[in-house]
Amino acid sequence: MSTTKTIIYGLYGDDDLLIDGVKQLRDRGIKINEVYTPFPVHGLDKAMGLKESRMSEFAFFYGALGLTVATLLTWYTMNYDWQQNIGGKPSFTWTENMPAFIPIMFELTVFFAAHLMSITYLILNKHYPGQKPQNPDPRTTDDKFLVEISDQNYEQVKEILIATGVEEITVKKIEDEKIN
């Protein structure tokens, strides 16, 4: 058994027309799969009705993890594993010498937050190693904006896209075979 999936692409030349088009499509109940842009477009996330990102929560967690690792690392190396009397300051407790460890704690907090945020971003956006880019039109990397809509009434979507100033409309049909 095979099914046909129809994908409609609307190509815009201006970001203001894009936002207007996205708002009109959403107002008429048409679901937008994706929007491809050459640069971040302010207000597009709200126009598409996307949920607010939770990346800041991840950043806080990763920073706290880095601070914890730095604290444990400095305690382990200076107080447990390899105790030294540096500059006449004995290392009886970690808290007595903690001001000397602030640069290490700061650097590991930033290191963990930055690197783990990058990895999280790639995982959430499904950019795994060896994966081919999924950009349907290479012009969106230069100066065009593309709206992707699937499985909708073509005539209704076409009318809305034309009314909002779209430059080009492309329809792609994909055969999907399923074995039952």
TrEMBL record:
<keyword id="KW-0812">Transmembrane</keyword>
<keyword id="KW-1133">Transmembrane helix</keyword>
<protein>
    <recommendedName>
        <fullName>Quinol:cytochrome c oxidoreductase membrane protein</fullName>
    </recommendedName>
</protein>
<dbReference type="Pfam" id="PF11821">
    <property type="entry name" value="ActD"/>
</dbReference>
<feature type="transmembrane region" description="Helical">
    <location>
        <begin position="58"/>
        <end position="78"/>
    </location>
</feature>
<keyword id="KW-0472">Membrane</keyword>
<dbReference type="InterPro" id="IPR021776">
    <property type="entry name" value="ActD"/>
</dbReference>
<feature type="transmembrane region" description="Helical">
    <location>
        <begin position="98"/>
        <end position="124"/>
    </location>
</feature>
